[in-house]
Amino acid sequence: METVRPESFEGGAVAPGAQGRPAPEARVHFRVTRFIMEAGVKLGMQSIPIATACTIYHKFFCEINLDAYDPYLVAMSSIYLAGKVEEQHLRTRDIINVSNRYFNPSSEPLELDSRFWELRDSIVQCELLMLRVLRFQVSFQHPHKYLLHYLISLKNWLNRYSWQRTPISVTAWALLRDSYHGGLCLRFQAQHLAVAVLYLALQVYGVEVPAESEAEKPWWQIYTMDTEIP
């Protein structure tokens, strides 16, 4: 299977860890999921397919040692597979060209030579490997629909001035996106992640939910009853 590290693209390079030591696994996964997110945006992927790609990536490396396979190859295959899962199909050629441009901003699209076809075949082979390792369980429930529901509810709950003067919604969405840099998406239920980023956004701006001190239950507990949102 072809190795697709950044240096595999012409002119690409990887910054070494401190004093030349390899970066810890968490830092590697952070960098690679950042690559997934930025490449996904350039490919025109929506939020859910990008979240699925990150989740597939993290779930794969929960089963497989990081040293066993090239993380950037797994990332590219995760993008390709997520596009199929979420019905936003992507061409492997586009994924390869966007990845090449990501590592080499001034480069031209790769020629359709033997190198290109080796990269393409590696993505397809890696996709099949990932499906086997994950036992074809690549559909996930994401926090996005829960967060949208909670934000609409909270907007009607807070006074208009508090909502308009603080970017609670923007911050909550940004926190949710950033949570996919790690494995939180696999460790916690979707609705719990949604209410957690909303709670943190409120804490950042010091916004209090009306009548919280008099309520029998905290506001966030009402949102985490593990009920399905249609």
UniProtKB/TrEMBL annotation:
Coiled-coil features, chain-numbered ranges: none
Quaternary structure note: Associates with CDK10 to promote its kinase activity.
GO molecular function, one term: protein kinase activator activity
Domain Cyclin-like residues, every copy: 34-132
Organism for this UniProt entry: Marmota marmota marmota
GO cellular component: cyclin-dependent protein kinase holoenzyme complex
Taxonomic lineage from the root: Eukaryota, Metazoa, Chordata, Craniata, Vertebrata
Identification of the protein by name: Cyclin-Q
Role summary: Activating cyclin for the cyclin-associated kinase CDK10.
InterPro entries, sorted: Cyclin-like_dom (IPR013763), Cyclin-like_sf (IPR036915), Cyclin-Q_first_cyclin_box (IPR048055), Cyclin-Q_second_cyclin_box (IPR048053), Cyclin/Ssn8 (IPR043198), Cyclin_N (IPR006671)
